[in-house]
């Protein structure tokens, strides 16, 4: 897909079950993740994966797409994973198709929450030189917004995207609180090398209706 994937890691001072709930419930996911305006489950595959539809509202347009995800909650080491694939036929979307994963690992004092994903650019490779860093930043900012919700009980709506400019608020969500590459690694690494095996088994997303 792209020349390099996107990796974001944050440690959240909350139990793994709580992080799982707010990230796997579609209605809650749409509240903290600025990359989406709405996520709606649409059914299940015979293997138990969840199909969903998503939208992202931008001025004068709404991007719509579909996806499929599959979670693991009983891994031997106590961690959990969620793999997903997504796609859109919207020519105005900067992303055409993509795939990635979330990994939840219990650590002292909370949960290490990681994502790795990559996508095929919708606008071509040259514009993606600008789009990809923005998407990486938006993912990291959203992860810190989620952390604040879980650690302090502050609803995501208290921190709209414009709060990025609230420089006088040191407690605002900040992408800089996230690690953007694995320890000892690089942002330019292939961050899908460590994806769970469930990612390879996922079917294609269904066409948007």
Topology readout:
Elements: E1 6-12, H1 16-24, H2 26-32, E2 38-44, E3 50-58, E4 61-72, E5 80-87, E6 95-107, E7 110-121, H3 125-152, H4 198-201
Antiparallel strand pairs: 1-7, 2-3, 3-4, 4-5, 5-6, 6-7
What does the model show?
The protein has 209 residues and is an alpha+beta fold. Helix content is 23%, strand content 33%. It has 4 helices and 7 strands; from the N terminus they run βααββββββαα. A 7-stranded antiparallel β-sheet has the order 1-7-6-5-4-3-2. The longest helix is centred in the middle third of the chain and has 28 residues, at 125-152. The chain starts with 5 loop residues before the first strand and ends in an 8-residue tail after the last helix.
Can you tell me the overall shape?
globular
Beta-strand residue fraction? 25-35%
Distance linking N and C termini: 25 Å
Structural class: alpha+beta
Main beta sheet: 7 strands, antiparallel
Separate helix tally: 4
Radius of gyration of CA atoms, rounded to a whole number: 16 Å
* Average of per-residue pLDDT values: 94
Order of helices and strands: EHHEEEEEEHH
The strand count comes to 7
Low-confidence stretches: none
Strand order of the largest sheet: 1-7-6-5-4-3-2
Summarize the amount of helix as a percent range.
10-25%
Features:
single chain; 209 residues; alpha+beta; seven-stranded antiparallel sheet; 4 helices; globular
In short:
23% of the residues lie in helices and 33% in strands. It has 209 residues and is α+β, with helices and mostly antiparallel strands.
């Amino acid at each position: 897909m792209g020349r390099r994937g996107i990796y974001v890691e944050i440690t959240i001072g909350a139990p793994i079950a709580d992080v799982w709930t707010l990230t796997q419930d579609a209605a809650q996911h749409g509240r903290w993740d600025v990359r989406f305006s709405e996520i709606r489950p649409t059914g299940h595959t015979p293997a138990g994966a969840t199909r969903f539809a998503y939208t992202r509202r931008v001025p004068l347009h709404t991007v719509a797409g579909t996806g499929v995800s599959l979670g693991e909650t009983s891994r031997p080491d106590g961690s959990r994973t969620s793999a997903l694939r997504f796609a859109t036929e919207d020519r105005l979307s900067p992303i055409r198709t993509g795939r990635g994963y979330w990994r939840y690992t219990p650590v002292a004092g909370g949960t290490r929450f990681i994502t790795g994903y990559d996508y095929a650019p919708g606008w071509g490779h040259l514009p993606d030189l600008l789009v990809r860093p923005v998407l990486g930043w938006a993912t990291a900012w959203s992860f810190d917004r989620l952390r604040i919700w879980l650690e302090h009980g502050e609803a995501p709506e208290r921190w709209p995207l414009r709060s990025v400019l609230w420089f006088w608020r040191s407690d605002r969500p900040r992408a800089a609180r996230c690690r953007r590459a694995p320890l000892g690694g690089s942002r330019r690494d292939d961050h899908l090398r460590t994806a769970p095996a469930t990612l390879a088994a996922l079917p294609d997303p269904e066409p948007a209706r």
